[in-house]
Amino acid sequence: MRSEVPRERLCFSSNLTMPPERRRRMKLDRRTGAKPKRKPGTRPGWKAGAGPGRPSQKPAPSSQRKPPARPSAAAAAIAVAAAEEERRLRQRNRLTLEEDKPAVERCLEELVFGDVENDEDALLRRLRGPRVQGHEDSGDSEVENEAKGNFPPQKKPVWVDEDDEDEEMVDMMNNRFRKDMMKNASESKLSKDNLKKRLKEEFQHAMGGVPAWAETTKRTTSSDDESEEDEDDLLQRTGNFISTSTSLPRGILKMKNCQPANAERPTVARISSVQFHPGAQIVMVAGLDNAVSLFQVDGKTNPKIQSIYLERFPIFKACFSANGEEVLATSTHSKVLYVYDMLAGKLIPVHQVRGLKEKIVRSFEVSSDGSFLLINGIAGYLHLLAMKTKELIGSMKINGRVAASTFSSDSKKVYASSGDGEVYVWDVNSRKCLNRFVDEGSLYGLSIATSRNGQYVACGSNCGVVNIYNQDSCLQETNPKPIKAIMNLVTGVTSLTFNPTTEILAIASEKMKEAVRLVHLPSCTVFSNFPVVKKKNISHVHTMDFSPRSGYFALGNEKGKALMYR
Fold first, then answer.
1. In angstroms, rounded to a whole number, what is the distance separating the alpha carbons of residues 113 and 123?
2. Tens digits of residue pLDDT in 104-160
3. β-strand partners of 91
4. Known PANTHER family for this protein (predicted)?
5. Contact 380, 397 (CB under 8 A)
6. Are 324 and 314 in contact (CB under 8 A)?
7. Half-sphere exposure of 149 (CA within 13 A, CB side)
8. What are phi and psi of 482, to 5 degrees?
């Protein structure tokens, strides 16, 4: 009969038979409370309950496996209770810390972070700032979208730094375009906002108001049918749909240089006459090179149409007739008057005018209605000729020498400036003197011009002063007061020309370089941007003219160039 061995002895014997490494690992596992790890070579089907004599239990097939058990409601309740307990502990710790803080520190935190004593998450949301909500078709749930939209709005800043409000100043003196916008010397520096307002004012003044494309409130039609009706109404009518401004603004004149009118026929002789055709885009250029040239005006190349050469006939003055069918030309030392018929292409010389005893015919004027031709003679005589027959109608006599003459806008009166500073007004039909007045401050008259609207009379003297008179006062008074005396020239004024719209008066002196100015009417102020002093390409001006619609301005100088501006 086998004697029973005590259990303690069996355990002791088993410990003795264990390898020393396993005994050391078993002792560590008992101390830490961890289960012993399985050896790497252990088979996956081996279980703890299987002994060496028992067969290993195979795992159940996948079809017979049970799904893992979900956490029960009790486990969820335990997790919620644990989270609540943790939150309660954090709140108690925070209150303990708040009691130790002074009242000033708590007040400052409340001002900066707001009242968030009971909700730390609200403080975190406020520090993060508002989030931008995505599109409605995003995959977020309604609860998440509602949580994103419940963030409080941002507060205004508590203080404002005064340095942020300091505006940067712009220097107005170092820029020539900004310098022209200064109203007085105190505006040497302007802030950016004030400069923006000034530029806006200059633009609106130049445009004659706010243009339609710059208006903030645009008129919208209620339906597409109304817009189609407006388009149909626009296409059914013809005419000029481009409206012009009521008046030309003063100060700065927008203009640019064009190709010289006679670029295709250059010359070095002095240009004595430049004139635009009254009814076509043609400009005539004549000079001391014995030639009269016609050019087509396009502002780019100005191609030459024709040149008429007059042998041994240096041209003193050339002029179109009122209807533009003829060109009249006189010489510096001849009594012959040449007439060029543009339609027939014939050159007709007028050698002698019956009743005219002048040895040299130089200066002349053509009436605006095309009926008369006025020739300035010697010894104070003015000779009136019929334009069609070139026959003498009558003569008028003034005291002294005839310095300059011109017709009125209606061709019924003649204004003649004498060498003693007086101006005579004659009636064309009766050839009687209607009035004689003194040009204020003038000792010697050199030029005279009348506006096409019959409003102004301009008189230029040898001292560089141009007096602008009201035409009515010149007919009634002997000592009329000028509207304005233009004193921008210092030498004798030899050329005066009004533009067709009576908004610009061009004045020039042939005795000094760059001595040309454009005067704005009715303000009688000079445009500051013409001529450009730095370029100095105008030189001595001998003749000037405006195109019929004032789109171009041409002048001729002693270098043989007919400069043109748009």
1. 7
2. 777 777 767 666 555 566 666 666 655 544 444 444 445 455 545 555 566 777 777
3. none
4. U3 SMALL NUCLEOLAR RNA-ASSOCIATED PROTEIN 18 HOMOLOG (PTHR18359:SF0), WD-REPEAT PROTEIN-RELATED (PTHR18359)
5. yes
6. no
7. 11
8. -70, 150
